[in-house]
Structures are given as structure tokens and as C-alpha cells.
Design a protein that fits this description.
256 residues; globular; mainly alpha; single chain; Vanadium-containing Chloroperoxidase, domain 1; disordered N terminus
Length: 256
């Protein structure tokens, strides 16, 4: 026989049903950003983030052998139009959407679905916000003219006006692609070679597209590595990294 008084028995029953209802209610699907305007901010505060204008060397001097090599490679990559590499470079232009990390699908051996890996998706997205903090002083300070502006030629996608008006050095896509690769390789060390190779190719796509010089791409990788080093010291990033790594591990273990 229950020792609860009638009123307490009723309250307990109601509470039990309420708990069951909460346990069985479907979880709300995660929501993500839709573009740059509502893109998540980064982990690092500006006062303590690396400053690429301080640690990054200046772009090649006009007339130098390095600049001549940049121009020669720009002209050569214009001949790649119509090839699979040109089409890959066009696809690699994606960077702001939640699904942008799907460029690593083959390297990871999974299909990157943001809803299945919400913490990882947001972590990688927040890294773009941090990249803007780190690289903007260098982009504005050096303001190197982009190759398709200095020497007009076809690019693998129609460049928007803001792209022509922004600095070419360093390459932000290259920086983020390399930073993403370093993070994902740490989460999936058994696929590190494939992931790192894809991160390098993601940056090289900017040269293939004709929107960056080769030295812009190389400088971007320095920025990407500096970004990851700074993030490793951030407690919020480390906490998200642990959750994101578990999400990725479960996604890799599930049937594709």
C-alpha cells in the first residue's frame, strides 16, 4: 500500500508523466547560419588573437623572381579551364555555408551532414570568424592587388565586386582550409594524410581560380597554422573540440 497521501500521490503521478513526456519529446533540430550576415563569431577576442600584420612577411616585391613566378603560375592556370581541376577549384569557393567542410568528405570517408555533427559544424564555422580577426590587419595593411585585377583573365567563377576591392595577400580560403585540415587531422589521425592533402588542395584552388597568387596561398597556410595554435589555448574551443571529436567519431562509425 502506498504511504503517500492522496494529494501527494496525484502530484507524483503528474510529475512522472511530465518527466516521461520530456524524455520522449523529440529534440529540436539544430539551427545554423545561412550566410555571412548571421555567421557565428569566433572564439578569440581581438586583443589576444594573433596579428598577421605582425608575424607574416610582406608579399613579394614588384619585379622580384618570386613575383615573376607568381605571374607565370597565374598565366599557366588559365589554361586549366575545362579540366576537372578547374571544376574542383570552382566548387572549393564555398566557405561560408554550414556544409562547406564537405570538401573533406572523401578524405574523411564520410558525408559531412551538419545536422549530424552540430558542434563540429559550429566549431569549424567559428574558425572563419577567428580568421577574419587574425588576417584582416595584413590584408588591409599590405593590400596586394589580386591577379585577375592586375592582369584581367577568366576566373573559375564570376568574382563579385567586393572581391576585386579586397586584398589578395594572404589567401583566406587557403588559411581556413589548412586550419580545418589541421583540426580534422587531429580528430581523425588515421586519415591525417588524406585530410592534410585535401586542405592543401583547397588552398591551391584559389590559385587555379585566378583570384590569388601562389605566394598568397602559401602565406595563408602560415596564418591558418597560427590560428590553430591560438585556438588550442582557448578553453571554450577545447571544450567544443572534445564534443566535436566525439560527433565525428560516431559519424565515421555509422554506415555511410
Amino acid at each position: 500500500m502506498s504511504l503517500l497521501l492522496p494529494g501527494r500521490r496525484l502530484a507524483t503521478t503528474v510529475l512522472a508523466f511530465a518527466l516521461v513526456g520530456c524524455a520522449s519529446a523529440p529534440a529540436s533540430p539544430p539551427t545554423f547560419w545561412t550566410g555571412f550576415r548571421d555567421h557565428p563569431h569566433g572564439y578569440l577576442d581581438k586583443a589576444h588573437a594573433p596579428n598577421a600584420a605582425v608575424f607574416l612577411p610582406a608579399p613579394p616585391e614588384a619585379g622580384s623572381l618570386r613575383e615573376q613566378d607568381d605571374i607565370a603560375r597565374y598565366r599557366y592556370t588559365r589554361t586549366l579551364k575545362g579540366t576537372p581541376r578547374w571544376e574542383q577549384a570552382r566548387a572549393d569557393n564555398e566557405i561560408e555555408t554550414p556544409s562547406a567542410p564537405r570538401v573533406f568528405n572523401e578524405a574523411l570517408g564520410i558525408d559531412f551532414v551538419p545536422e549530424r555533427m552540430p558542434t563540429l559544424t559550429r566549431l569549424l564555422g567559428r574558425m572563419l570568424g577567428d580568421l577574419e580577426t587574425v588576417q584582416t590587419p595584413a590584408k588591409r595593411g599590405y593590400f596586394r592587388i589580386r591577379p585577375f585585377v592586375s592582369e584581367p583573365a577568366e576566373t573559375c567563377f564570376p568574382p563579385e565586386t567586393w572581391l576585386a576591392d579586397s586584398g589578395s595577400y594572404p589567401s583566406g580560403h587557403s588559411a581556413l582550409g589548412w586550419a580545418w585540415a589541421l583540426v580534422l587531422a587531429e580528430m581523425a589521425p588515421d586519415r591525417a594524410d588524406e585530410i592534410l592533402a585535401r586542405g592543401l588542395a583547397y588552398g591551391e584552388s584559389r590559385m587555379v581560380c585566378g583570384v590569388h597568387y601562389a605566394s598568397d596561398v602559401e602565406a595563408g597556410r602560415i596564418v591558418g597554422a597560427a590560428l590553430v595554435a591560438a585556438l588550442k589555448a582557448d578553453p571554450a574551443y577545447r571544450a567544443d573540440f572534445a564534443v566535436a571529436a566525439s560527433e565525428l567519431s560516431r559519424a565515421r562509425a555509422a554506415p555511410r
